[in-house]
Amino acid sequence: MAGSTFEREPPMNAGDGQVIRFPAAGKAPARPVLAASVAVFRDGKVLLATRTKPPADQLWSLPGGKVEAGETLEEAALRELAEEVGVTARILGFNRHVEIFGRDAKGAVTHHFVVASFIGEWLAGEPRSGPEAGAVMWADPLRLGGLATTRELGEVLRRASSLYRDGSPA
Predict the structure, then answer these.
(1) Percent of the chain residues past pLDDT 70, beyond the cut
(2) What domains are defined for the chain?
């Protein structure tokens, strides 16, 4: 359907115009996977981590992951933050949702995630890499330079930064 999100796989943005596509993940998913992430702010910087698994392997993104049965979206975002990078934060509010999906050469869906992205404030812990976060850093949310990032990270961070700065996350 024209204008549909499923029309074509959106490319990843490496910041310098380089297109990075999600790798095909094999068997098509039966339905979208629900996930949560959090833009954690500390001293004007936001916490970023590189992903270590497809579909966003080696790309800078927000810490986050799949929501488990019985937990709220906020609980999932905070659990994933602690598991992936060893940081504790408090949720200030909801930022926006992001859909991440890809298609194989024949047009079949290879993966589809719906990520609820929150805004948070750092409480404790120094970020560390691990099995799901290859590298970590505190970055200027509005100046990502030539970093290879997940497709909508720039827009997610612009909105999160604005809401955080204005003190009005919803």
Answers:
(1) 82
(2) 26-166 (3.90.79.10)
